TrEMBL record:
InterPro entries: Aldolase_TIM, TAL/FSA, Transaldolase_3B, Transaldolase_3B/F6P_aldolase, Transaldolase_AS, TSA/FSA_arc/bac
CDD domains named in the record: Transaldolase_FSA (cd00956)
Name of the protein in its database record: Probable transaldolase
Subcellular localization(s) per the UniProt record: Cytoplasm
Name of the coding gene: fsa
Keywords: Cytoplasm, Pentose shunt, Schiff base, Transferase
Main enzyme class: transferase
Keyword Protein biosynthesis: no
PROSITE patterns xref list: TRANSALDOLASE_1, TRANSALDOLASE_2
Length: 217
């Protein structure tokens, strides 16, 4: 499973990237706002640090305008992945930009029907939003499973990029289902290392070690 980091925070990306844990990055207009930086500048900096695809999102609503914005964003770096919303215009933009050889991430996917259209439109990645479905008392993980089944039925090459991840269980469940990629905030990825029994076991080992009176170095 590939790990993308869902942030435009350079320091947070660097910490995980230095551990070899970053296969790509996703941003969106809200994350750019949070970074307080210009999209071109921060995207260029991320692209220079990370080898994999870095999603930068268009904000226009009409297909022609999305295409123009997408082409512009793609000039920032060779590893920019153009992110378009799952609207009819977004699908049109996806088809054109994908045919031009760009990588496309179709975002804001909330149904299997939408995911089928994204695959047909040549998306490199489809981003189903797990957390936001859970927020409205639907099961976001069911959507990941449905898309996996459908894509496998027909051999669609579009990669399932499980997004809007809020918990460690979201990551594990998406991995069990076979999502190709997860994108999660750095804090959620780092919390995968936590376990109460690890903390308890370490405390016991440290206490016992202190009683030996020994030193390793
Ligand atoms: C994905 O590309 C989005 O940036 C992201 O996962 C949205 O997550 P949120 O629902 O926590 O804002």
């Amino acid at each position: 499973m590939k790990f993308f980091v869902d942030t435009a925070d350079i320091a947070a990306i660097k910490e995980l990237n230095d551990l070899g844990m970053v296969d790509g990055v996703t941003t969106n207009p809200s994350l750019i706002l949070k970074s307080g930086r210009a999209i071109a500048e921060v995207t260029a900096e991320i692209c220079a640090m990370v080898e994999g695809p870095v999603s930068a999102e268009v904000v226009a609503e009409k297909a022609d305008d999305m295409i123009a914005e997408g082409r512009h964003l793609a000039k920032i770096a060779p590893n920019v992945c153009i992110k378009v919303p799952l609207t009819w215009d977004g699908l049109k933009a996806c088809r054109v930009l994908s045919d031009e050889g760009h990588k496309l991430n179709v975002t804001l996917c909330f149904s299997a029907a939408q995911a089928i259209l994204a695959a047909k439109a040549g998306a490199t990645f489809i981003s189903p939003f797990i957390g936001r479905l859970d927020d409205i008392h639907m099961d976001g993980m069911d959507l990941i499973a449905d898309i996996r089944e459908i894509y496998d039925n027909y051999g669609y090459e579009t990669q399932i990029l499980a997004a809007s991840i809020r918990t460690v269980n979201h990551i594990v469940d998406a991995a069990k289902i076979g999502a190709d990629v997860i994108t999660a905030p750095p804090s959620v990825i780092k919390s995968m290392a936590n376990h109460v029994l690890t903390d308890k076991g370490l405390a016991q080992f440290n206490a016992d070690w202190a009683q030996t009176g020994q030193k390793i170095l």
